[in-house]
Amino acid sequence: MSEGFMFMLGSSMLFLAVGLALFALWIWAIIDVIKSDFKDTTTKIIWIALLIFLPLLGAVIYPFVGKSTKKEIV
């Protein structure tokens, strides 16, 4: 097999792996938002809207910012 074909195959597999990882992160974020209680009810709606309309941005930001907007469990 030629080197060009192997490079294309390797880069395709990398893009597939990254895409699947981002998809899994997005699904996890949606499930976590739905199951969680937030300090304010509108915050939950905003997170769901962000995850639906800007899925990549929302999924990347949620683990860092979204966790701080949840109610604290005592």
Kindly provide the radius of gyration, computed on alpha-carbon positions and rounded to a whole number of angstroms.
Answer: 17 Å
Low-confidence parts, pLDDT < 50 over ≥5 residues? none
Mass-distribution shape: elongated
Largest sheet geometry: none
- Count of helical regions: 3
Topology as a string of helices (H) and strands (E): HHH
Name the beta content range. Answer: under 5%
Number of separate strands: 0
The secondary-structure class comes to mainly alpha
Instruction: Give the termini distance in whole angstroms.
Output: 60 Å
Task: Let me know the average pLDDT.
Answer: 86
Estimated helix fraction: over 70%
Question: What kind of assembly state do the chains in view correspond to?
Answer: single chain
What's a quick, concise take on this entry?
The protein has 74 residues and is mainly α. It is built from 3 helices and no strands.
Describe this structure in words.
By secondary structure, the protein is mostly helical. It has a domain at 24-74. It has 3 helices and no strands. The chain has helices spanning 3-35, 41-53, 55-65. Helix 1 packs across helix 3 (55-65) and helix 2 (41-53) packs antiparallel against helix 3. The N and C termini lie far apart (60 Å). The mean pLDDT is 86.
